[in-house]
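Incident log, structure service

09:12 report received: a user says their structure output differs between two submissions of the same chain.
09:20 pulled the input from the user's history:
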Amino acid sequence: MKAGARVLGLVSLLMLAAPGTALAYVGPGLGVGAIAAFFGAVLAVLLAIVGVVWYPLKRFFNRNKPKEPGAGDPQGKP
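09:34 re-ran on a clean worker, output below:
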């Protein structure tokens, strides 16, 4: 049974990878837009990872640093 499932999966993968005839035209505008959307989605995922992982770590490591005088006050007055 396990070998039969493996063969079925391999055949299914080969059928999905086989090129077929697409009766459609993808112009340069749509092609560039699709590429930009793909890269935008990848960048959004990467920035989400940075926001979830990097900034809390940065806050954790910078929490014990002494604050500079006047750092909270924009005019530097006590």
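09:41 both user submissions now match this output. Likely a transient worker issue. Closing.
09:42 reviewer note: The CA atoms of residues 8 and 14 lie 10 Å apart. The chain has a mean pLDDT of 83.
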